[in-house]
Amino acid sequence: QVQLVETGGGLVQPGDSLRLSCAAAGRTFSTYAVGWFRQAPGKEREFVATISWSGMNTYYVDSVKGRFTISRDNAKNAVYLQLNTLKPEDTAVYCCAAKRTFPSERYYYREADYGYWGQGTQVTVSS
């Protein structure tokens, strides 16, 4: 069982930055692909970014390319999402999800592919 906990959310102004963290407890994270998803009020949850187990491969939704960066530190059992140049439309609850994939370097962007989910952290972008 993998337990995921997200931290780092908050209230920021447009143009600001945040770094979200997804920490794993209960099992090593290093063999899992991880995805970040977000859900805005009144909207369906959407894919944001994903990273393969080693960090070799990453993939982003078009709306965040060039602004968000996903990375991981397997020694610390953590995955990060750096959010730069935030916009009001980035306001949402951000959740991380994990899927054991080792040794494949595939990444996944469908919710149904992931078996483990965190509770999420709120990101609010407002002036």
Any overview of this molecule?
The chain is mainly beta. The protein has no helices and 11 strands. It has strands at 3-7, 10-12, 18-25, 32-39, 46-51, 58-60, 68-73, 78-83, 92-100, 116-117, 121-125. The strands form 2 sheets. Strands 2, 4, 5, 6, 9, 10 and 11 form a 7-stranded mixed beta sheet that branches. A 4-stranded antiparallel beta sheet has the order 1-3-8-7, with no helix packed on it. It is globular, with a radius of gyration of 14 Å. The termini are far apart.
Task: Give a concise summary.
By secondary structure, the protein is mainly β. It contains no helices and 11 strands.
Strand and helix layout:
Layout: E1 3-7, E2 10-12, E3 18-25, E4 32-39, E5 46-51, E6 58-60, E7 68-73, E8 78-83, E9 92-100, E10 116-117, E11 121-125
Parallel strand pairs: 2-11
Antiparallel strand pairs: 1-3, 3-8, 4-5, 4-9, 5-6, 7-8, 9-10, 9-11
- Global structural class: mainly beta
Distance between the termini: 40 Å
Shape: globular
Low-confidence stretches: none
Strand content: over 45%
- Mean pLDDT equals 95
How many runs of DSSP E, i.e. beta strands? 11
User: How large, in whole angstroms, is the Cα Rg?
Assistant: 14 Å
Order of helical and strand elements: EEEEEEEEEEE
Tell me about the largest β-sheet.
7 strands, mixed
User: What is the helix content?
Assistant: under 10%
What's the tally of helices? 0
